[in-house]
Structures are given as structure tokens and as C-alpha cells.
Design a protein that fits this description.
271 residues; mainly beta; Porin; 13-stranded antiparallel β-sheet; two-stranded antiparallel sheet; 11% helix; 39% strand
Length: 271
């Protein structure tokens, strides 16, 4: 196992993908696994890179809605491919997927949207008095914490870590890549948006498998952190959990307090 002694940013790892026409072929080592599948953020970012290759241009990504259909195995390459569904004057809708053999593992719609003139201007920036320096750091423990967490520094400033029997799953979590040469761009930022554990597992008293079913990622001002490796702050809310499923939202902020993105997810709880 790659234990992260020489960590590489997600954007660099995905940049190693082989280009075959409009598709990408990528093989990862086991340090990027989340259980038996690729870490979800790498799936999002790889599928999006295929979409960006097909769409071209520089219109910012506005949203990505994805479904995790099957595990992406580390044992064979994953093929990322994308098609344009509709290209308007400002907005382009696309579909992107990751496949292995005849199996679709991840499928998503991507919306790119050029900026337009508008009289509407509102922001919900939130200052924070929390600090990652004094927060609880999640250690990477081989065969205990997911492999991919060795690539990220995760710190709980408020709330309880996984499997701590918390009565309130609300949390404030800081994260950034471990790699010193990491710098956020579209790919690196997408990769980190799925980094936090589902908040429902903080309620549990002992480890139990969970699996993301889908994600709805709305990109608001991610460009505020592009070119930096600053701390990203996740404000995490668990909306409800029953019948073996849970529903959650994470508001994602930069160090300035700018709202960068909002991620909604549904997860399965096993055991």
C-alpha cells in the first residue's frame, strides 16, 4: 500500500490519465481507495475532466449531479467519457460516466455556465472564529481509516469524529490536501468536496459500513480558492436518517468566509 510518504495531489494523479480520443483511461494505486472502491471525490473529478475535454472553453462548472452505481475497482483502468446533451449561448449540459468493462460505475450530469450580466447580487459569506490549528486531527491508521484519507488533513473543530456515539451529528470540519504542491483548480477542488465522512457515522458507537448513493454538488464561488492550498471548511448537517438511509448537506467555505459550494448526499447504512 502507498502510505502517503510522497503524497501527490489529486489533480496530478488524474492528470496522468491516458487520453484515448475523447475518453480518459485512469488506473489508481490502492492509496486512493475508499473501502473497495475509488474515493468518491476522485470519481467526480475524473468524470468532470472528461466533460471538460469534450466541452472545451472556460465556462465555469455550475453543478454536478452524480450517482454512485457500482464500486470502481483499483485492479483495472476506469474509462471516463462524456457527451454534450445541449449547448446554449451561456449554459452547456453534459453527461459524463466512469466505466469498467461493460459496467457503468459512476454517472453524472454536469452543467457549465458562462457568467451573465445581472442586477441580482447576494452572498452568504460567513466569518468563522474556528481554527484548524486547535482542532482534532483525524489520524491515518492503515486498515482502520479509509486509504484515501492519507492524502488529506482532516480536522474536527466542532462536533464529534466518526463512531463516537454523538447525540448531535452537526460538525465543522477543516480539510486540505497533504501534498505541499497541491493547488486548487477545478479538478483539485472537485476532488476534495467529498472528503468528509457522512455525519451519520458519528452517531454510531462502532464501525459500520456506509456507502454514498448519489451527490448533488452546486458550485458557487470555487474560484475564490483557486491557486491556493488553503483550508476548506465544511459545515455539516444531517437532515434525517431511517430505514438504513441518511440524508445530509455540507456547506463548503474558504478561509475568507466565502461560500464555495454546497454538497447534498444520500447514503446507505449497512449493519
Amino acid at each position: 500500500m502507498n502510505t502517503g510518504s510522497n503524497p501527490r495531489p489529486a489533480s496530478v494523479v488524474i492528470g496522468d490519465a491516458e487520453c484515448v480520443g475523447d475518453t480518459l483511461s485512469l488506473t489508481l494505486d490502492d492509496s486512493w481507495l475508499q473501502g473497495r472502491s475509488w474515493y468518491g471525490g476522485i470519481q467526480l473529478a475524473t468524470a468532470f475532466k472528461a466533460a471538460r475535454r469534450v466541452a472545451g472553453g472556460d465556462a465555469p462548472i455550475r453543478s454536478l449531479h452524480g450517482t454512485f452505481l457500482a464500486p470502481v475497482s483499483q485492479a483495472e483502468p476506469a474509462i471516463a467519457e462524456a457527451t454534450v446533451l445541449r449547448a446554449g449561448r451561456s449554459v452547456t449540459h453534459m453527461r459524463a460516466a466512469l466505466r469498467q468493462g461493460d459496467r457503468t460505475c459512476f454517472d453524472c450530469t454536469v452543467v457549465l455556465g458562462a457568467a451573465r450580466k445581472s442586477e441580482v447580487a447576494f452572498n452568504s459569506d460567513v466569518a468563522s472564529d474556528l481554527s484548524p490549528e486547535s482542532a482534532f486531527k483525524l489520524p491515518f491508521i492503515p486498515d482502520v481509516t479509509p486509504n484515501f484519507t492519507q492524502h488529506y488533513d482532516l480536522r474536527w473543530a466542532r462536533g464529534k469524529p466518526p463512531f463516537s456515539g454523538a447525540t448531535d451529528p452537526t460538525a465543522s470540519i477543516f480539510a486540505r490536501p497533504v501534498a505541499e504542491n497541491a493547488r486548487y483548480d477545478e479538478i483539485e477542488f472537485l476532488a476534495i468536496t467529498d472528503v468528509i465522512p457522512p455525519p451519520v457515522i458519528s452517531i454510531l458507537h462502532a464501525p459500520s459500513p456506509v456507502s454514498s448513493m448519489n451527490c448533488a454538488l452546486e458550485l458557487i464561488r470555487p474560484e475564490h480558492v483557486y491557486g491556493t492550498r488553503q483550508w476548506i471548511r465544511f459545515e455539516v448537517t444531517l437532515h434525517d436518517a431511517h430505514s438504513g438511509y441518511a440524508w445530509q448537506t455540507a456547506r463548503i467555505y474558504g478561509e475568507s468566509g466565502a461560500l464555495l459550494a454546497v454538497m447534498h448526499q444520500s447514503v446507505e447504512i449497512f449493519g
